[in-house]
Amino acid sequence: MAGKLTLNDLDLKGKRVLVRVDFNVPLDKTTGEVADDTRIVAAIPTIEYIISNGGKAILVSHLGRPKGTRDPKYTLKNVAKRLESLIGRPVGFVDDCIGTEVEKAVSEMNNGDIMLLENVRYYVEEEKNNADFAKKLSAFADLHVNDAFGTAHRGHASNVGVAKNIPSAAGFLMEKEIEMLGMAVEKPNHPYVVILGGAKVSDKIGVITNLLEKADRILIGGAMMFTFLKALGREIGDSLVEDDKLELAKEILERATEKKIDFVLPVDAVVAKEIAPGVETKIVRVDAGIEAGWKGLDIGPATIALFKSKLADAKTVVWNGPMGVFEIDDFASGTEQVARTLAELKSAVTIIGGGDSAAAINKFNLADEVSHVSTGGGASLEMLEGREMPGIESLSDKKGKKKRRLMVAGNWKMNKPPQEARMFAGFLASSVGTETAVDIVVFPTALAVEGVSDILKDTSIKTGLQNIHPADSGAYTGEISVSMLQELAVDYVLIGHSERRQVFGETDVQTNEKLKAVLKGGRVPIFCIGETLEEREADLTNNVIERQVKRGLRGLKRDEVSKIVIAYEPVWAIGTGVVATPVQAEETMKYTRDLIASIYDCELADSMIILYGGSIKPDNFEALVSMKNIDGGLVGGASLQESFVQLVVIAKNQA
């Protein structure tokens, strides 16, 4: 969880919180009632924390595989009823997860209310991570909390897509899953023992391959053991085997030997002629082989004793997959004994990797006796494989982890005559004039610069000029030079603003000349870049950015460029009310940073402040500034109002 936003980092009071929970629970086929509420119970701490801190909990989940249709068999209505009985509070239910019905229901929520939306997989767009669908899910929420580790390995709209539109934090369950499984993957205490079972080697290839680099011992049980045994030339009778994986099994065994991993296979097995309760069983030594007509269905007593000895000094244990057909008592002994052994290892961290392993530990009532039982079968496997997890990667970066200092700059444009400008500067001075965590700059009209800078001279707020001429003096009617600023407290100058480019026809060559003049005069230029709507729709955004950056910085040395602040302002978002989504802005700003790295170096690019500009308001700024490559905002209309103070507060909370 290092660097990722968690539930404890959020200010929840009055916030509409979209919580992705994993309520994919088994239902009684006859009544439709919840048959196992384990996953519902697991989500309650997160839900209770949100509502007890004044948030509005809007829960969203999938159930089963309705394949994009409104199949009543997969409704979450009965899940809402079970949650209500478990949490002891009313739980509202809406018969949809997007649209006007949901928006109306959310608008009527009070702080501390809980609502469950209908199955998100009623829409095919969910599993396709459709951007428009994700926007609709985000539209009625301020924050996103992802507490569904079971879907963390899937890039779907309700976990990954939504996180591109609003700040996303890990819930308590997600946080614990990442902490426990992450420890096993990255920094396990040794001896580190892994127990793998289940039916197929093919299901565990990635896990085994990754663990061969980290584990001290790997214990193999379940039906997958017979693929390894056959690869060693043992007779396995009618036991389940993957014949097409025999060569792979041999390679794994050879690699384990090379890496000096203790790869432990069973020495005996419980066999029967059929998988059914009450049938004849016997114990067979693996070396002696299993007769035709008989199949191995559990590990035997000698193997149980062997596994116990291999676990005795373990400091970290991960178990994924049962040792046999544990659902039938006749073949459950191996799984039960492994579970009880883990429960007795009080000096070890014991992690149960979800799926059938979790079902087994619950069957034997030992879940409370181990360190952690994962709620995600496939997700825990993929994490143990060391794969990137979309549902984790999409979480917002933790506040206070910004690499660069944040800035909020207000461009007043041709607004606020001198007296009004001074009065507003006075308001800002009293409201945020002592703020030191964030750089604050205002750009009044040229007529108002002197008065505003005088009001702000003893505060933390800096004053800037909206435009400059590159010459020191001359016959340039209506222009202002850098040398004329010597008697004024002006620290910043806007260069290349889209309105200068679009309305007044300024070229990249003129922008370059102005940058050089501002740097020579000892001021900080805020260098604006951005594409028009036509250019974005033609997929030319990166081409435009590259041209503007390369031509704008032409002839500038590294130490000069290090003093520049860049502002990405898509022309189509300026003054239109349309704002680039956080992911759109992030992608372009990352491209810009990578471009600077390619022209100069990575260290310079990594330290450069890059702002976003374009219809910024308090209700969209937090999502933007929480992105990795966005270091604040160049604000237009909102900088003329008291809401500018809110933007500074939002930035401060992210700093």
Description:
With 655 residues, the protein is an alpha/beta fold. It has 3 domains: 169 residues, Phosphoglycerate kinase, N-terminal domain (Rossmann fold, 3-Layer(aba) Sandwich); 200 residues, 3-Layer(aba) Sandwich (Rossmann fold); 180 residues, TIM Barrel (Alpha-Beta Barrel), CATH 3.20.20.70. The chain contains 25 helices and 23 strands. The strands form 4 sheets. Strands 16-17-18-19-20-21-22-23 form an 8-stranded parallel barrel, surrounded by 7 helices. It has a 6-stranded parallel β-sheet with strand order 3-4-2-1-5-6, with helices on both faces. Strand 16, helix 15 and strand 17 form a beta-alpha-beta unit. Helix 1 crosses helix 2 and helix 10 packs parallel to helix 11. The two termini are 18 Å apart. The mean pLDDT is 91.
Write the layout of secondary structure elements.
Elements: E1 16-20, H1 38-52, E2 56-60, H2 77-87, E3 92-94, H3 100-107, E4 114-117, H4 131-138, E5 143-146, H5 157-161, E6 168-170, H6 172-186, E7 192-196, H7 205-211, E8 217-220, H8 225-231, H9 246-258, E9 262-264, E10 268-272, E11 281-285, E12 295-299, H10 301-311, E13 316-320, H11 333-344, E14 349-352, H12 355-363, E15 372-373, H13 377-384, H14 390-393, E16 407-411, H15 418-432, E17 439-443, H16 449-456, E18 461-465, E19 492-495, H17 498-502, H18 508-520, E20 524-529, H19 533-537, H20 541-552, H21 558-561, E21 565-568, H22 582-599, H23 602-607, E22 610-613, H24 618-625, E23 632-635, H25 643-654
